[in-house]
Fold GUN4 domain-containing protein.
Amino acid sequence: MPKTILVIEYSRNMQRVFQQLINLLLKNSIQIHWVYNATDGISFLEREKPSIILLDFEIALGSDWEVFQYIQSQARLRWIPLIVMSGKKEKITDEISGLFEYFHFCEKPFDGRELKQAIQVAIAQTKQRYQKDSKHSIFANYFHTNIKPMHLKLQDLLIRKNWKEADAETTRLTFTVNRQLLNKDSSSVRTSVIEAIDNFLLEDLQAIDYLWVIHSDGHFGISVQWELLQKIRNELYQIFEQIGFFDGDDWQNLSVEERQQYVISFMQRTPTYSTASLGDSFQDFLSRYNIKGILTLPTALTIDLGWLLKGSPEWTFNGEINYSLDSPKGHLPTVGRQELGSAFHHGFMLTFIFSKLYD
């Protein structure tokens, strides 16, 4: 079956260049499908899967951005080598920062040989990015995730690295809380949020997580937060093993409920242990995560996420949100952090979201 190059090019003046490309590629059984507008380009992509996509990109037109968004929203398309063609590279660079990681850029004017070389580079770059992402454990479940129209605004914001607005959009897509109700009856608010999470479609939650993970190169995302929780939990379990708290049980074979009971039981019995028997490792663990004399894994997570300062005497969030990649890993999305009001409440809300994703 011959390979197909889809060309979405607004100017018919480029026909000569692409004829040169056809002549260069004839021996490789390459077919070129040409369309002159974004609508026809998306229509073609809905029906077929080309081997390479060439997109004429003019920010002022707007529709070319819709094509780019559509390609990134479809699991079957996002790993196709994409070449953006434009005579306005500086304008694109200024207006869309961080975009160039998703395609190879070919600056106009160019000839057929230069375009052929650009195609070869784009294929190599796409292969490298795919291999890098597929090796990362948190990308493993997302290679077949399609993005719905409801997620396109979030995708747009994340592609542009507008982390603050993307965080607000994520809260809008998941749940919002009536702050007046929270002040009157926090338990009712938590119950309503849990119900909202239960009713939330798993595929939508996966799509939101995917967008955060892939557009931050694994720095942000719900699954990133979940992995951090696993790291904290594993550290605590290793301490349990060191002091012989499991009484012969293998924690790796325990259910989540059994593990939680171990944590609760251990915290209840901690005063009966001497400092020497607990060991330096647990003392260090407590110094990092003990809030008001209480240790819970969800609130320990909020400390590692940079939402709650270590050694804080209160449950109230006191860590500033840092809307940049200089923030702690997993810092975003906050998923309603401000609405829930306290680290204690929010940490447990996150566990319900994790249960939705992984149980």
Remarks:
- Residues 3-135 form a domain with the Rossmann fold fold (CATH 3.40.50.2300).
- The beta strands are 3-8, 30-35, 52-56, 82-86, 104-107.
- The longest strand covers residues 3-8.
- The first helix runs from residue 15 to 25.
